[in-house]
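Reopening this ticket.

The earlier resolution said the output was attached, but the attachment link was broken on my side. Pasting everything inline this time so it's all in one place.
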Amino acid sequence: MKKTTVLSRLIVSLLLILLTGCASSGNESLRKESESSIQQKIVEGKTTKAEVKLAYGSPFTTSFTDGGLEIWNYELAKMSADAINYVPLVGLFGGSASGTKKQLVILFDDKGVVKKFSMSESPVTVKTGLFNR
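Inline output:
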């Protein structure tokens, strides 16, 4: 086999391994958002449910307070496999994935106007494998 063919296959294999380690789930509209960018789009006492839905789509979950006020929750998790997963057999017994989770929680008043909201971003680690259960 030619040296360039072997090198090409090696490069393609490495790229495939790197690309298969990333995943995201949730509301993609939160991807580029931060607490300050959300504050520019959502104004307490002014922004309506319709405006929030237009900007971010349907919420991930909806719930209600004891007083009957509606709460919308949006989430986005971005994860990538940690390097230990690529060590033969080790990943099977004790792998992990790390990333970040963004969460936007909005409380509406009885007229459907934003009463309060919060945006948070936090690190997330998920353990996988036989010994991490």
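Reporter confirms the inline version is readable. The radius of gyration is 21 Å. Confidence is low (pLDDT under 50) at residues 14-19.
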